[in-house]
Amino acid sequence: MMLPGATDTGPVGPVAAAVQAEWVDLLGELEAVKNAVTATQARLTVALDQAARGEEAWLSIRAERRGRGVPNQVGGALRVSPHAGAGFVSTSRVWVTQMPHTFAALEAGVLSAWRATLLVRETSHLSLEHRALIDEEICGPAHLDELARMGTRRLIARIKELAAKLDVHACVKRNAKAVSERRVSVRPAPDLMVYLTALVPMAQGVQAYAQLKATAESAKATGDERGVGQIMADTLIERATAREPGHANDVPVTINLLVSDQTLLADGNEPAVVVEGAPAGAGVIPAPVARNLAAHAIDTDTAWLRSIYVNPHGRLLATTSTSRFHPQGLAALLRAREQGICATTWCDAPIRHTDHITPHADGGPTSLDNGQGLCARCNHAKQAPGWRQKTTQLDGRHAVETVMPTGHTYVSVSPTPPTPVGASVMAPVRGADSSGAAPGGTLVTGQTGRGVDTAPDRSAAASSDGQSATPDRDRVTAPPWTPAAGMTSPAPGRTPRSRYSIGCQTRPDHGAIAYRPSPPPRRTRPGRARAQRRRPDLSWTHPS
Question: Fewer CB atoms < 10 Å away: N or C end of the chain?
């Protein structure tokens, strides 16, 4: 775009004041156009929502389930998360159907989308009549000039003032509801930090903050070299975890790392991923930090490290189960593959459900390739009529192709896992078959009977005449698996211990190991002592 009074590389030399004034005017006009575009998007969104609900009503779908897929469609079109799409759908519905003056001001460019959203939020507890009165009082044609000069904080104060005058009881109920929604949450922050947030009543929050500040100032007066904010943060953690002062770092935790063996046990630079411990994990962490976390956990004996196995090409090993629901180990693999975040495109919510891509009712297997981790909203949205999904691959990574009722297609690709040593270092394996297995189908990972069985990818290069391109004795084969995380280096003759033991190699004639629950206990005869109830055996056994 060529700016008036400037070149493609920017202004050359002094720019006249008239030209700069023209740029400012252009900024204002573009802002008005942006607000008008938002109003048009809102009108389209309401029309789409009404059409989808009408079609689903014709299909006799229950009223509470109608329109579940619209937020995902809107989010995909706007390139935002389904949660943000749902918020835009509900806000647009209020603009178009309940607040005509606000919508007209947005369409004219006088009101920004954020300020129009505040009008909806601050009047959500009022009746339709009172909301319409506030809409006309603030955004009516006679008040547009005043609205254009009003700041955002002053706008919120004006809305609250009018709401308290119109319906004080509704305001009191809203405050009582807010108290009932108190909670504590945690979310990732930059530089390997997290935000630990407590939503509490104002009086309690102010009291807690004052107490922490008084403790920090007292410690500072005694010569503590830490800053006041640092002392407050350490005191909060120590009191919440019942630790002694100065031992905030000794909190027992479970560290779940998706990390390559080179990063953890050598000096590799491949970053690790914390896949759990927070609603959506803590994200990518540098390799030295991952090694320090592991070393501190081993030294203090305060943590477990979960082992996750990948093949030499960087993909998690495939797993299967005959169960309708994903077993615990398989669900852990799904969460690790998606790094704790919903697999839907543009969605940033944490994984809450493990879902079948091809539904189980349609013959879809309970396997790693046919599974995906979704948030609750996305899992419910794909149940709406007209939604289709299938498994595919993109650049060798697991991907899911989603086709929406309107025909729009979106492809979500799983993140790239840390690269194991086996992906870059291929050593000859003598006496191994074409799959890279040791002779006799030797089990290559410890703790049988506690994990999820897997079968690695089997591939062999062949010439056009069907014969092997190279002799077996000279073939360089990749190991069938590579441990991507471990507790410590195992002693000679010992297998590494971990919370989950995932992956084993079997003979080709056996294929995948079948999952068989133990038979139910026999019924006892009348008069005899009742037998102790047996728990089902969740081990993975070879077929007989």
Answer: N
